[in-house]
Amino acid sequence: MKTRSILALALLLPGMAWSAASNWPMEPMKPDLKNVPSLQNGFRLYVNYCLGCHSLQFQRYERTADDLQIPHDLALENLVFTGQAIGDLMETAMDPQLAKDWFGAPPPDLTMVTRVRGPEWVYNYLKTFYLDETRPLGVNNKVFENVGMPHALIDLQGIQRSGCIQVPKIAANRGEMRDPLEPGRPITEEKCDQLVLEEGTGLYTAEEYDQAVYDISNFLHYVGDPSRLERHRIGGYVLLFLLILWVFTWLLGREYNKAVR
Q1: Residue ranges of the alpha helices (H) in the chain?
Q2: Over the stretch 225-261, which tens digit does the pLDDT of each residue have?
Q3: Is residue 96 domain-resident?
Q4: pLDDT digits (tens, 9 = 90+) for 131-183
Q5: Which of 53, 139, 229, 251 has its CA 20 to 30 A from that of 201?
Q6: Which domain range does residue 24 map to?
Q7: d(Cα 10, Cα 99) in Å, to the nearest integer?
């Protein structure tokens, strides 16, 4: 518990500074812990693209496989690449000193990242990497400016740049403005500091990548509190029990009042 508290504080303090420095408009992201295929795909993507650097040292493979309805033999064959046992914690094989030499600091553990910053932050962070030749690793991020890590999912997303685009101009009634001389033609304006994806440079389409990022964020939301759904389920039974108990208590109180009168 003490270790968790220290980790949460260590993540929270720099996270507050990062959030304050970013004015990027966040896209909404609502996690769904009942969407088992999404959680399974998020698990698969995480161990393939993230676990090499970012451990989940408070989560075990066995607990994750059981919660996500994955047989142990399939999990060991397809999701455990470090030679660990199914009951081991999900730790990275990266040497901390080498990681410090490569990135300036060891990559943080992400077990509680969504509890500190929220799944929406993770979702937008993974979507807003872009090429920046001024940075040591060649990329930057709109949500976390001057990020110190490479874009691990660039093969899936493709090349994204920051630049200017033409967007429809919005009228006061929130509708798109139309050219009075050419009916149906929208009036556009230039907006800079926007992200422009080079189509065809990634393995996924834009929609497929959005879903992949959602699945990873959804999975990390689960990892941050694996017992959340079970607690909610039990909480419903507890409230039902208290409601029934209240009825009997009220009836008992009514009988006591009759005796007093």
Answers
A1: 2-21, 36-49, 61-67, 72-78, 96-103, 113-117, 119-127, 154-157, 206-224, 228-260
A2: 999 888 888 999 999 999 999 999 999 888 888 877 6
A3: yes
A4: 999 998 999 999 999 988 999 999 999 999 998 877 676 766 666 666 666 66
A5: 53
A6: 2-159+198-226
A7: 18
CATH of the domain at 50: 1.10.760.10
What does pTM read for this prediction? Answer: 0.79
96 phi and psi angles, rounded to 5 deg: -60, -35
Distant-in-sequence, close-in-space partners of 201: CB < 8 Å, separation ≥ 6: 158, 159
Pairwise CA distance, residues 216 & 123, whole Å: 8
Classify residue 188: in a domain, yes or no. no
Q: Of 203, 207, 222, 215, nearest to 41 (Cα)?
A: 215
Q: How many distinct structural domains can be found in the chain?
A: 1
Lookup result for tokens 């800079």:
192
